[in-house]
Amino acid sequence: MHIARLRVIVVLAASVALGCGNSPTAAQSPASPPIQAPAQGGADPVVAEVGDRKITLSEVDSKWQEFDAAERARVTQLLYQNRRNLLDIMVGDLLIAEAATAAGITPDAYLERELKRRAQAVSDAEIQRFYDENKERAQGRTLEQLRGPIVEFLQSQRQAQARAQLVDELRSKGASVRVLLDPPRVQVAVSPDDPVRGESTAPITLVEYSDYQ
Question: Structure pTM?
Answer without folding.
Answer: 0.64
